[in-house]
């Protein structure tokens, strides 16, 4: 999952090397303090016009399927939830839960800036009920019914490492989206939370966001056709008092839901005529909180497609810029996303699966990786940086950026970041707090007093042949 505080997102892709290898020119610092960025840089069309073959397919569906297959075979950070066994040993469950829910060892603060005391932390840890794991646990299955936080502990309590910063909740891990299939392997002591294994993450989720069902029903949902794919940053179902479980439900970019194409054209859905909407099927918690699948309406003006988008440089830029200005949300908090969540959801709209955390994304063996070590100097990194293409992903510790183009010898990125640091033309250190999906150049950015972002690059992942 983890994006670090600095989260940039870089959009670069195949075809000819981005742009001319101009010698970098000094960048202006506008009044908004984001170096080298003017209004023209803040649209996808500006960067698309610079490309020679913006609509050329980078990876076709067969190549994407092959890459996703490699991811599941070679990358231990993702889970083949359908392939998990029907039961688990106590050792396996304790390993999953214990890795995430071990007692904190450093001072933490609450939303009021007060230190979280030992008794409160002990109670949170105890609610994980590691001492109550049975010798054998039978797998249970569920679909997520509403966007849900994934937590390190079974608690809503938000905690922070500083008493003056309440943005980075250290118990927040990620989020799950409606229709995601999960395997339940453990429950909290208070009975309000489940520890689940999802395709990209294993963590705690509140039971109110899960609908349990038979294994075959749960997994069949994700294989249903035809489908709709969300291609906007978010879309929402229509309001319906008749079925609150699917009323104004948020679906995020890349979420794929079954389309009820054979629904009678004049048959109402939850009290509303369907001719202005798509009729889709969504999971809810029905009688006894068990899984039910019900129809819902998604307006036909919603930003959706009937299949994953073609993976082209133009589409990558358009999809990335749809998030421009969205608030940064560590671990998908604030109902938004962080740097790795941002690039994951952009690529998910093309059917491309990525690991959740930057630490896993950056080293995944399933992708087309260029790796760097401490022995590689800046010149070697710059040699690769000069050839970056739209859609390429750049990794520094705790952060990922996506390339969007080149201008005047500078590499430009789109990314979800808390802020940037650089030296202005007078040599002064400037910090611009952004907390949003932003556009910035790469080369001027500093990572500490004596290192640049370029110096800290340890990996570049190319989602291309």
Automatic annotation (TrEMBL):
Signal peptide limits: 1-20
Single GO term (MF): cysteine-type peptidase activity
Coiled coil: none
BP GO annotations: proteolysis
Occurrences of domain NlpC/P60 (ranges): 310-464
Highest taxon above the source species: Bacteria
Keyword annotations of the record: Hydrolase, Protease, Signal, Thiol protease
Family statement: Belongs to the peptidase C40 family.
Protein name: NlpC/P60 family protein
Species: Pseudoxanthomonas indica
């Amino acid at each position: 999952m983890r994006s670090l505080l600095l989260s940039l997102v870089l959009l670069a892709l195949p075809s000819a090397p981005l742009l001319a290898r101009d010698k970098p020119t000094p960048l202006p610092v506008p009044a908004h303090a984001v170096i080298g960025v003017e209004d023209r840089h803040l649209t996808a069309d500006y960067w698309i016009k610079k490309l020679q073959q913006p609509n050329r397919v980078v990876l076709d569906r067969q190549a994407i399927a092959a890459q996703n297959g490699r991811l599941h075979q070679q990358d231990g950070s993702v889970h083949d939830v359908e392939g998990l066994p029907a039961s688990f040993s106590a050792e396996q469950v304790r390993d999953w839960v214990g890795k995430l829910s071990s007692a904190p060892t450093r001072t933490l603060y609450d939303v009021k800036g007060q230190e979280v005391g030992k008794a409160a932390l002990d109670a949170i840890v105890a609610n994980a009920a590691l001492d109550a794991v049975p010798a054998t646990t039978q797998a249970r299955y569920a679909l997520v019914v509403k966007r849900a936080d994934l937590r390190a502990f079974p608690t809503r309590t938000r905690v922070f490492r500083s008493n003056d910063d309440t943005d980075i909740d250290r118990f927040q891990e990620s989020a799950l989206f409606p229709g995601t299939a999960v395997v339940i392997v453990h429950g909290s002591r208070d009975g309000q939370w489940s520890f689940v294994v999802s395709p990209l993450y294993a963590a705690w989720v509140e039971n109110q966001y899960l609908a349990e069902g038979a294994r075959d029903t749960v997994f069949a949902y994700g294989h249903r056709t035809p489908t709709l794919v969300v291609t906007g940053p978010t879309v929402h179902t229509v309001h319906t008092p008749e079925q609150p479980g699917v009323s104004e439900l948020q679906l995020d970019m890349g979420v794929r839901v079954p389309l009820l194409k054979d629904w009678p054209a004049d048959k109402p859905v939850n009290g509303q005529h369907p001719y202005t909407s798509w009729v889709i099927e969504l999971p809810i918690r029905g009688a006894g909180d068990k899984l039910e699948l019900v129809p819902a309406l998604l307006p036909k003006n919603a930003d959706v497609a009937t299949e994953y988008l073609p993976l082209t440089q133009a589409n990558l830029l358009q999809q990335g810029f749809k998030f421009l200005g969205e608030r940064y949300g560590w671990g998908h908090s604030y109902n938004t996303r962080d740097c790795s969540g941002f690039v994951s959801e952009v690529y998910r709209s093309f059917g491309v699966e990525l690991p959740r955390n930057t630490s896993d994304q950056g080293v995944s063996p399933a992708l087309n990786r260029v790796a760097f070590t401490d022995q590689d100097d800046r010149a070697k990194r710059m040699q690769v940086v000069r050839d970056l293409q739209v859609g390429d992903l750049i990794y520094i510790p705790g952060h990922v950026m996506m390339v969007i183009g080149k201008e005047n010898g500078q590499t430009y990125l789109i990314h979800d970041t808390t802020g940037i640091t650089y030296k202005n033309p007078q040599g002064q250190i400037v910090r611009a707090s952004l907390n949003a999906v932003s556009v910035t150049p790469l080369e001027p950015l500093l990572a500490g007093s004596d290192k640049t972002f370029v110096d800290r690059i340890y990996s570049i992942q190319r989602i291309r042949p």
